[in-house]
Structures are given as C-alpha cells and as structure tokens.
Predict the structure of UvrABC system protein C.
Amino acid sequence: MDYNDNIRNKLALLPDLPGCYLMKNEQGTIIYVGKAKVLKNRVRSYFTGSHNGKTQRLVADIRDFEYIVTGSNMEALILECNLIKKHMPRYNVLLKDDKTFPYIKITNERHPRLEVTRRVLKDKAKYFGPYPNGYAAQQTKKLLDRMYPLRKCKTMPKEVCLYYHMGQCLAPCEKEVEKPEYDEIIQNISTFLGGGHEAVKKDLQQKMQEAAEELYFERAKELRDQIIHIEALMEKQNINTTDTKDRDVFGYAVDKGWMCVQILYMRQGKMIQRHSSSFPFYGEAYSDFMSYVTQYYSDNPALPQEILLPEALEVKDAATVLPPEPDEEAAAATAASGGGAAELSAEDDAEEETAADEAAVTEARDASAEGIVDAAGGAAALQEWLGVKVLVPRRGHKKKMVRMACENGRVALEEKFRLIERDEERTSGAAQSLGQSLGLENLSRIEAFDNSNIQGTNPVSAMVVFIDGKPAKKEYRKYKVRTVQGPDDYETMREVIRRRYERVLKEDLPQPDLIVVDGGRGQISAAVDILENELGLFIPVCGLVKDDKHKTAELLVGDPPEPVRLARDSEEFYLLQRIQDEVHRFAITFHREQRGKSMVTSRLDSIPGIGEKRRKLLLKHFGSLKKIREASVEDFRPLSIGDKLARQILDALQDEETV
C-alpha cells in the first residue's frame, strides 16, 4: 500500500470533532501541527482543491498524519501550543525565542534588588513586562536604579560601595533596613512600571522645586536629570485611552507568504512600546496568527487586564486587505437602514462597545461548543485559558487600535519587500554597470578565486560565485593544492584554474561571464594561459589588486592587463569589494581549518606509540586535542591504551602547552 492509499483510508475515518492534527514527512518527522474545530473538514482540505505556493510546499512533503481529539476548542488551542513547542515543526509559526521578551524583576529576597531577566520562574518575585527588546528593559532598569535605592550587588559586600555614597543604595550590608521601607520602594516601582510615571514625574518636580528653594542645587539637578530621563524614556507614547487599563493590542498582515504580527503594549491607558515579528507561514493565515498568540502567552506571567485581537483579514493575491475604517462601516450600516446615527457620549459609547464585544465572545463560546470557531471563537478559547478578558472589537476606539496594529504590520511587510527589491536592483544594476565598464554584453555569473598559505604550508584555494551581484553560496568550492611546493602563487593559480574548468567542460557546468583572480598581472596571465592554451576557453579574466591596507584598490583587465578606472563610491566598486572580501574570507577560513588539523596531526604523530590508526581513534573518541589534554589516564582505557602510554600522551601534550 503506497502512502496515497494510506492517507485516503485515514481521511475516511476522521471524526467530526475538534482536535489537533500532526502532518509527517517521508522519514516520519512531524513537519506541521494544526488545530481544527472539525478534524474531518480541516484535514481533508489539505488534500483537495488548490492552495497557494507556500501551502503547496507543505502538502508536497506530507506522507502521513495522525490526530488527537480534544474535548473543546480551548483544549485544542493549548494542545497545539504544547505540540509545537515539543516537536518544533518545520512549517509551523515558531516563537522560537520564548525567552526573547525580557522582564524587569524585583527579587523576592530579604534585601530585594532589580534585575533584567529572560527566565520567568515561580519564585514569588514580581515581574514586569514583557519588553520588546533588551535595550528597552535595560534603559528602564537604569532609570529605576537612579531613582530607587535598592541594592545593586548580587552578593552582599562587607562594606558600603559607591552606590551608597551616590544615594542609590540603602546599604543593607552596613545597617539594618526594615521591611516597610522596602515595601514603599517596591510599591513606587510597581506604580511606575504599571504606567504611573506621570505621577512619579509630578512628585519629582515638586521635590526639585523644594530643593531649589532651600538652595540644595545639586539635589535639584539630580531630580531634574531624573525627570529628563523619564521624559526621554516615555517619549514614544502617542496613544491615550479614556480608561487606565493595561492592554495588549494585536494586529497582523500577510503578503507574499510572509506574516507580520504587531503587538502594541498599552499600560495605564497609554501606549508605551510595540513589538514586531515577521516570519514565513505555510498554513491558514488566521490559524497561524492564533498559534503565535498562544505561544506568546504560554510562558508570559505578566498578563494584561485585556487582550484585543483582530478579525480574520481578507486575503487577495497573497496580500492583506484591511477592513474598512470603523466610521465607514457605521456610515454604510446607517445608509442601509435608512436612518440617522444616534449620538452617544464617550462613556456611553465605551460601555456599548464593551457590551457588544463581550456579547460576541459569549456567542462565540456557545458556538464553539458546536464546533464553530471564528475570530471571536478563538478569543473565547484564549479567554477561558488565560483567565483575562480577550476581545475582538467590532467598532469604536478599540477597533481603531487593532486596525492601527494591523496597518503597522502591513507597512512593515511593505518596507521589508521594498528593501529586498531595492537591494536586488542595486546589486543587479551594479553587475550590469560593471559589465559595461569592462565592455561585456552580459555579466550575470562571476567566479572569483583566492589562494591562502603561510610560508607555503597547507596551501589552499577557494572559489566563490556571484550571480546577478548576489552570492550563490551553494556553488562555492574549496581546493587543497596538490602539485605546488612552497609559496608559489602563480603556479597555485594555474593548478586551481585547470582543475575547476576541466570539470566545467567535463560535466557541462555553466561557464562564468567573468573570472576574477585575487592579484595582479602575474595571476591574470597564469589564469589566461591555462584557459586559452590548455582548455580552449576564452573567458574574460580580471584581477583585483589590494593596497597596503589590504583593501581593494584597482581592477586590472585585458592582455596585457590595464587598469579600469572606477569611482571609489560607485556601486560597481562596492560589488568588487564584496567579491574580494568574500572570497578572501572563504579561503582564509578553509586554510585555518586545514592548518588546525595538520597541527593536531603533527602533535599526536610526534608521540612514540601513536600511529595513524590510534591518532584517528583518539580524535574520534575525545573530539579535540584540548579534550585529550584534559583527560585522565582512566579515560584512555576504553580505547585499549595502557596507563603507561596514556601518561606519555598526557605528558607530551602538557609539555607542548607550556613551551
């Protein structure tokens, strides 16, 4: 029975129940995990009808599947998250960096301190965040360290340090600090991190005025600096809401098989930060978006009071189509009903908006019991799991916030693709311009060579390939020089050019439009001689000459080679620099590998009683010369090496280390 028959038989047995499905490839590896309100319908959809390019790639790899039935959509949501974390499937949206989001932590100790951490533990400490990046968290901690005198030392010192003299530590190492004093500081920090920085700033301004009036100008300056730091840290706040709730606002956009998720962090009614993630996706867009949200909250202890999610966005021609503006929706609804819009106060509007959103979630929860899951159904499952309010707003200010998050995602994807297109235009344009400067009709494929050795030892060469101005790394090649003894760069070039283009002719590989050698007239002449006189190939060869700082200085081409004048700030010159730097990096890396291997070989071979067989055995068992040196005599016994020889090996390696 082939895999198609196996899949058909399994599809016929799928139940009409919610659950998770696991797609497997030919090797039995799980490559995709998904959830479904009705397993039969969702799993069958992969094997019927047409799909976009990304999903086609996933389907082409599927050879088998299995499924797990769950009791509810919430259970399916949690199970999917756990399975993704366990198996890390290739085609799933993976929040690989659960620890990416840093937190500010107030430790649960007799003398607490502030720290930035990416590990959230059940240690009764207070965690604030998550912050979108480490820099934001560190800057916030730095400000709090200036303002609040918690201890800074991980290990309690024996005497007071500079922080005490700067007024940034209470010196618990020197004197007793009572718990109420710490409680007050922790409460102030909690207020600040909870979004109450305006109240903190106002209090500091009052203290600054009092210090100035009492002629304590140094203290007034310190307080003024703290106020400036608060303003600088919070200057990105640009959205306010009428209430003071903590919210996470999610939005997403898709285009060309990529998804961008935006999270706006609202604290105390103000937007304080945002986080953006872009990644390729292979499944259904909204389902993969919800997988991202579920993974995000699976290890997040700092839950907001409310989470706002978008509705499923319409996707046309692989690009997101945002829903109409809320005002347009209201106008359209009014026009359809033939009536005028009722005027509501801000409070009435907010209450009605919340009531409508909560009613939608309640309806979705009832519907989800019947297996009907949409955006509101996903929100209902998430709300049941997290225990906080999760809404899919239909109108009003919350709808505008979600729309703004989606719009940010759309703009971020557009910017990503514009940058890619611009880079492609610049690189392909640079290759064309370089071809024109060299008198070539077409310049698509460039192959570049560089040699590397130290006083003739371990001579190697390397070739890199650039196609339309971009590196084609799969076509890079390394060469161990076989026939040349000593540091002879010209003969090394002759050998490598001969080996490369004999193979090109023999295997009918694509020929380059231009060959670039690292060097001047001698290297060019050596390459041309082999190509034309031995192989009958007439491929243009140019040489790149470096200056005394080992930077690209001049391009030589022709017979005899003559310099081609290129502006130092031109795209063509920049392309040549990239090619020369890349081939040099590739060659020198290969040379270091070979030199390292030969050094290990020579060290072990110089020890009496160690031949080629035992040398290979030792390296295979221990992994490196360093590990052999750190081993004990007993570690050699599994290799049938006696204690006497083991001591000789260790003594020889230790002697070499001390030389």
Summary: The domain at 241-314+374-427 is CATH 3.30.420 (Nucleotidyltransferase; domain 5). The CA atoms of residues 113 and 151 lie 5 Å apart. The chain has five domains: 3-95, 103-194, 241-314+374-427, 429-596, 612-655.
